[in-house]
Each structure stands twice: as C-alpha cells, then as structure tokens.
Amino acid sequence: MKILLARFASGTEFLEHYDGVFPWGGLLVPTRTVVAADEPLIVEVAFPELPNHVLLRGRAVDRDEDRGGLVVRFLHSEEQKKEFLLQVASGEQRAIWQRRHRRFPVRLRVTFGVEGGSSTVHAHTEDLSAGGIFLRTPMTLSVRTPVALTVDPADGSPPIEVTGHVAWVRHHPPTAGFGVTWDERSSHAMKRLRKLMRDLKTRGKLVEAAGSERPEANVH
C-alpha cells in the first residue's frame, strides 16, 4: 500500500484541498503519482498547526490534471481523524498534544489472550508504533488488563510474540477495540517490531495481511 505525503503551507491550504463531496471526506493530494482507480492508499497529512503528521486510509478516485493532484476519498474508519484535521485547520481546536511515537496504520493479523488464560481471540491491528498497538475487535477488555499477543508480520517471517497492558478502550462499533502499551521495549520481539516499522518507512508503503481488508459497500 502506497503512502502519499500531503504537505500544506497552512491549515487554510489544507481546507482548500479538502473534498467534502464524499461520505467520509476526501482530499486533493498534490502529487504526480498515478494509481489505479479504487487503489487503497495511505495519505500522510502535514501542515504547521499539526504537532504530528496524521495518516489516513483512503482509496484513489482519479487525477485532477487542472489542479495537479490525485483525488482520494477517505474510509469510514478515518472519520475521527478527518474531523480532527478539519477542526485544527479551521481553528476550532488547538492541537496541543503530541504523540511520542509515530503510528503506522498497518493492518496485520493478531491473536491475543489474557495473560494466564487458556482462550485466544483473533483480531487485526489498526495501527502500530514503538510504544504500542491498537487492535480492532468487538471483544474489548478492561483498562490495565495484561495481554499476550502474537502478531503475524505478513512478510513470511515467524510470528512475533509480545506482551502488554490495555491502555484505553473504544467501545463503539464498527471501530471497537483497544490500545495496548508494550511491557518490554528492549526484547528481541520488540526489536523485530521496530525493524518492521523501519522497513515500512524505508519502502514508503505498508504491507497488509492478505484478505484482511473487508470490501466496502458501493457508495452512489
């Protein structure tokens, strides 16, 4: 999956490129990149009012040659991020927080269970960072619950086994799930995760588990 950098000189310029015609919003990304219609993409948005770049999932629509860009429609899962960008760009909200670790919106298969328990549950990652992971799953756990996770890196290498604690919970479907903070940052498993993220950044694209993307309903 390709990552497109959408860098704007100001929040006002971002709003000029924002496209509200799509159900969950979209963006005219200034780029010469040519991709097939409906190809999945990651758009990395940056403008001075943001303390961090924001990465959103989307799909290519078509090129706007008059304005020199690619039109991308955002996915429903990115609704909160889109609203945050609009509020910051319009001055309605001041972006005062800053994440310590960059999050990669990568979708990988994960099996998790409560530490010491015998049952496991299958889920998918929504994003991944050096500090933790967010799991998309209808089965949510209480904050501070210790969990053991097995992550499939989707590159043919063996699964990565790590432990952590539930840091926060999102209860609302279809984006329900919970965030996990890693217990051990210097283990061999964490080194493999950091290498995976470095590889993603170097390649400028994201690797996703085959068959992990659910088809969207057609929007007319």
Explain what this protein looks like in three dimensions.
The chain is an alpha+beta fold and 220 residues long. The protein has helices at 11-17, 79-90, 188-203, and strands at residues 2-7, 18-19, 26-30, 40-46, 54-64, 69-74, 109-114, 121-128, 132-136, 146-151, 160-170, 177-182. It has a 6-stranded mixed beta sheet with strand order 1-4-5-6-3-2. A 6-stranded antiparallel barrel has the order 7-8-9-12-11-10. The longest helix is centred in the last third of the chain and has 16 residues, at 188-203.
Largest sheet: 6 strands, mixed
Strand content: 35-45%
Q: Strand-and-helix sequence, N→C? A: EHEEEEEHEEEEEEH
Uncertain stretches: 95-99, 207-220
How many domain units? 2
Q: What is the end-to-end distance?
A: 25 Å
Q: What is the structural class?
A: alpha+beta
Q: Rg to the nearest angstrom?
A: 18 Å
Question: Within the CATH hierarchy, at the fold level, what is the topology of the largest domain?
Answer: Thrombin, subunit H
Overall shape: it is elongated
**How many strand units?**
12
Number of helices: 3
Topology:
Blueprint: E1 2-7, H1 11-17, E2 18-19, E3 26-30, E4 40-46, E5 54-64, E6 69-74, H2 79-90, E7 109-114, E8 121-128, E9 132-136, E10 146-151, E11 160-170, E12 177-182, H3 188-203
Parallel strand pairs: 1-4
Antiparallel strand pairs: 2-3, 3-6, 4-5, 5-6, 7-8, 7-10, 8-9, 9-12, 10-11, 11-12
Helix pairs in contact: 1-2
Defining key terms:
disordered C terminus, 220 residues, Thrombin, subunit H, six-stranded mixed beta sheet, six-stranded antiparallel β-barrel, 3 helices, 2 domains
